[in-house]
């Protein structure tokens, strides 16, 4: 009889531990037809600059520039973030932000002119710096102390081209999506170009 009780307790304990493994958050695809940045409301292109985060309650927010995701975090805090993702500049693979390497230079063209691109490893980031002849290597922890200024010269002409294409319809005020769906509405943007 004791063996059955011990076996039952062990089975219950293993079931509880398996349930405590935590929620697994995964990056979701970008749908250019409907996805808009939760901050600037511009179209999120399926490119190397796209970022996203999922809150612990399952709401996914997508951004067209790492700087926009940073602004969202400043406004909303980070306690409720389940996972945040950036894309590798070279192959567009999703990477957990905490594991990525970054290159910053004000002259690097990004959608909202924050000048930061991400890479899956330090070696790739260093190769980019060597190839471009500019850039400061940064880690995810370095981003917390970064100034996050936009290159205003890089922004010239972008506002006009965004405004001329039309606005948004039917998305929630926060720009998020429930679960892993997509925000409604689209705003065309000019083709995002790298350096």
UniProtKB/TrEMBL annotation:
Compositionally biased intervals (Basic and acidic residues): 157-174
Under the heading SUPFAM superfamilies, the entry gives: NosL/MerB-like (SSF160387)
> What keywords are annotated for this sequence in UniProt?
Signal
TRASH domain: residues covered: 37-76
Keyword Phosphoprotein present in the record's keywords: the answer is no
State the superkingdom.
Answer: Bacteria
> Which Pfam families does the UniProt record give?
NosL (PF05573)
According to the record, the signal peptide region is 1-18
Cite the PANTHER family for this sequence. HTH-TYPE TRANSCRIPTIONAL REPRESSOR YCNK (PTHR41247)
Identify this protein by name: Copper chaperone NosL
Its organism's taxonomic lineage begins at: Bacteria, Bacillati, Bacillota, Bacilli, Bacillales
């Amino acid at each position: 009889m004791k063996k059955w009780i011990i076996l039952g307790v062990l089975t219950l304990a293993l079931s509880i531990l398996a349930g405590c493994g935590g929620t697994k958050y995964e990056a979701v695809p970008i749908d250019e037809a409907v996805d808009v940045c939760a901050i600037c409301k511009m179209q999120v292109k399926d490119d190397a600059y796209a970022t996203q985060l999922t809150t612990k309650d399952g709401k996914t927010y997508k951004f067209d520039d790492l700087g926009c995701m940073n602004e969202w975090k400043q406004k909303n805090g980070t306690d409720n973030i389940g996972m945040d993702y950036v894309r590798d500049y070279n192959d567009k693979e999703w990477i957990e932000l905490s594991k990525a390497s970054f290159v910053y230079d004000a002259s690097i063209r990004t959608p909202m002119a924050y000048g930061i691109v991400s890479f899956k490893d330090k070696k790739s980031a260093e190769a980019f710096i060597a190839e471009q002849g500019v850039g400061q290597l940064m880690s995810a922890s370095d981003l917390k102390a970064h100034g996050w200024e936009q290159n205003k010269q890089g922004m010239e002409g972008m506002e006009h081209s965004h405004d001329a294409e039309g606005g948004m319809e039917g998305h929630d005020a926060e720009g998020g999506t429930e679960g892993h769906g997509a925000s409604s509405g689209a705003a065309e943007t000019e083709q995002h170009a790298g350096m």
